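Most newcomers find our protein records easier to grasp once they have seen one. Read left to right, the backbone structure tokens trace the chain's path through space. Once this layout is familiar, the rest of the handout is easier to follow. The record below serves as our worked example for the rest of this section:


***
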Amino acid sequence: MAKSVKQLRSMLSSYCQHHPGVKKLGIVRRSVMSSSWSSMSYVVVLITNDETFLTLDVNDWKDDNDYEPYRNRQITNPNSTVGTLIHMVKGSLGTGIMAMPLAFKNGGLIFGSIGTIVICIIYVHCVHLLVSTTYKACKRGKVPLMGFAETVHDVFFNGPAKVQPLTKLVTGYVDVMIVIQSCLSFCLYLVFIAKSLRDVIYNQQQFDWDTRIYLLLLLIPMMLITQIRELKYLVLFSAIANLLIIAAICIILYVIFNEPLIFVNRKMWPQWSTLPSFVSTVLFAIQGIRYVLPIENKMQHPEHFLGSFGVLNIAISLLTVLYTITGFFGYVSYGEKTKGSVTLNLPENKAIAETTRLLAAIAILFTMGLSYYVPMEILWHHLQPKVLAKRANLVQIVLRFSVLVALLGIAIAIPEIEPFVGLVGSFGSATLAVLIPVTIDIIFRWPAGDFGRAKWQLVKNVVLLVFGLFVMVSGTYFSILDVVAIYK
């Protein structure tokens, strides 16, 4: 298709915005002759910062609608669709499911069931907004893939003039919040594994070792797990973790269904004072948005991620059913005695309780590689340009080990880290899982006013922003109360 000089300059201007290595561009007109025809075409001349001259035939140039990011990805060791599904399930399936009965205690049986489904739908929609906006930004910038922070940077940088000055601030916030959330969750997992092993071994062998000793012992397997750098090689770990955590839930449900289910004196609706805790608990339990783009970017067939029967919808649908069943029947069984983790409600010193704790601990151990992958990718992305290629492998090994030791030190120094994770989680989950995806969708659509009939998409996004602010403010408030209560 013939392109005018004006169209070419517009396309090249967009190209240079997303390729800072190009400092100048020009369009050279040339005549093409053959035995039967003659025509005019253009050659694009690009001059890079190192004074290298590049030429590109306009006939090979593709505009935004022609460029296909997925076809231009060159991924080393890509994940299969099944492997991606396993990772997505594991990214959201963790210790949070054990707190679902407590969430239903705060939300009530009827509201809890409906609320859990609604919150999961909202989360899935926000992930769709993030992935679809990333895809559109990649088409506009003619790049094959972007991470979370890169998408935010691109959208704000190319957005309306009023939001452009916020580009660096918001981009930095996303990276920092993902790293902090990931690292604190990693510490929480370490403490969870150590305490579970301590309880099981004490009940079986009466070894009264301190939790810190088990944390130090965990350093041995963690040294190996945290050195795995490719998602493809973590699929087996995620698959085993999924099977173990589901087995633990099945045992819990077996114990619950072996007892009479009592619906008397069970709340159906929440009180205003417990509603924020319910919403925060469910959102924190289901969301794993920091894993979404790193996992999607490594897919062999990324077009299978979204869609009615895509990886995302299947993964969250399975988790929604599992979370709702566990929360509903857990609360029905234990009522007002429901504790922070349903495993604490199981009969003490019984083999079935010990088995459940052990399965959960091993499952979380196999999760650690995936939990470690995201923050390491971000840190290495910022560090790699400063490292010589021949030393890159050694630096990565040292970086991964050093961060592991630091996180282990935090877990040893502050074994009661759950309230701090909740505090960061309440603030971070609301912003990363709801506020940021909705905001970048609005900013990307704003210049073209692409909000549908009667601007229904803008109205919908505003409602989601109000929901996200409610979760952030209320969740942060109650988490601060929990932290204060520890030091009273």
Remarks:
- The radius of gyration is 26 Å.
- The beta strands are 22-33, 38-48, 53-57.
